[in-house]
Specification:
Elements lengths: L1 H53 L13 E8 L10 H13 L3 E10 L4 H17 L4 E11 L1 H6 L4 E4 L4 E3 L11 H7 L23 H26 L15 E3 H4 L7 E2 L2 H9 L4 E3 L6 H24 L5
Parallel strand pairs: 1-2, 1-8, 2-3, 3-4, 3-5, 4-7
Antiparallel strand pairs: 5-6
């Protein structure tokens, strides 16, 4: 009799316990959903704040209508996919030359160099724009370093300025690699390389060097070096002290050393050049910069994506 009475009570207790558990689970899911919602709302809010307060980059086209000195940053490695690519720098140069209120252009260079092709494009465009509007002078100001391709670009300017401790020059060409011939022999690895054309596997790091290929490659580097020297001499003219034996050897000089060699024209900053040389102190940045949204997404996108995915999977384990 007691067992019969206990059974319904036990069933009621289990049902009550089941309801409590299900209610707890539902409450947790609701809390997670609201958590995801508020996190997403926070990100949207941050994006809106970024757009509202970042504003456009200061530019002559903003309607200031005041005379100014245009400044363009050439920062980092000069390469096709970098901030200091020829596309970015050339576009900024054209904008500056098209703006009547931009009385001069300063290229603020802080670059160790990079692609001679990209540097050559920028050099040629500076020369072309100067020929179209010779009254608009171009000044290069070297910050920490203006070497190799960075100096290549500077040589196209009407005048070059640097700090006394800036690194200037490195008029040379380099190409480096590794050879793994002995390493793969010790590891017992057999190299199989099938080509059509006797030099198609040119300077393969897993095969012994061929003297004729090394000679070919040195000729390519020598040719590029001569192009570099020719452009520097064309840009700098008689200001260069060509009797210095190390001038085109790839040596880097301090700004103080570069001045008597004719590699630069004076010591000074961008502000000094705008104020004392151009005579128009106001600087307007024409540098092409990444869209604020793109910059934020590129920096936070991956981590945000992982966090959102983890939150969703935590709230909905059935999606795993």
């Amino acid at each position: 009799m007691q067992d019969e009475m206990a059974k319904p009570a036990s069933e009621k207790e289990w049902r009550l316990l089941e309801k409590l558990v299900m209610s707890s689970v539902l409450e947790q899911r609701r809390a997670r959903r609201w958590g995801i919602f508020f996190k997403a709302l926070t990100f949207v809010y941050l994006f809106v704040i970024l757009v509202v307060f970042s504003g456009p980059i200061e530019h002559a086209g903003d309607g200031s209508g005041k005379p100014h000195t245009a400044i363009i940053e050439v920062a980092g490695v000069i390469a096709a996919e970098e901030a200091a690519s020829a596309d970015n720098i050339v576009t900024a140069l054209r904008d500056a030359f098209d703006e009547a209120n931009a009385k001069a252009v300063i290229l603020r260079i802080n670059s160790p160099g990079g692609s001679p092709v990209q540097a050559g494009y920028i050099y040629d465009e500076i020369k072309r724009l100067k020929a179209l509007k010779p009254e608009k002078r171009v000044y290069a100001v070297i910050a920490d370093i203006g070497a190799s391709g960075g100096y290549y670009i500077a040589a196209a300017a009407d005048a070059i300025y640097a700090d006394k401790a800036s690194l200037v020059g490195s008029i040379g060409v380099t190409a480096a690699g590794f050879g793994f011939v002995d390493a793969i022999e010790k590891l017992g690895v057999e190299r199989r390389n099938y080509t059509s054309g006797e030099h198609k596997s040119f300077l393969d790091p897993f095969m012994p060097e061929k003297p004729e290929e090394v000679a070919i490659w040195k000729n390519v580097l020598d040719s590029t070096h001569k192009q570099f020297i020719r452009q520097v001499e064309d840009g700098r003219g008689d200001r260069l002290k060509k009797d210095e034996p190390l001038l085109y050897s790839g040596v880097v000089w301090s700004g103080e050393q570069a001045l008597p060699l004719g590699l630069i024209d004076g010591l000074g900053s961008s502000g000094y050049v705008a104020r004392e040389i151009v005579g128009v102190e106001d600087l307007v940045d024409y540098t092409l910069r990444e869209n604020p949204f793109e910059a934020l997404v590129s920096r936070l996108g991956a981590s945000v994506g992982r966090q959102v995915a983890q939150s969703v999977l935590h709230a909905y384990p059935e999606l795993r």
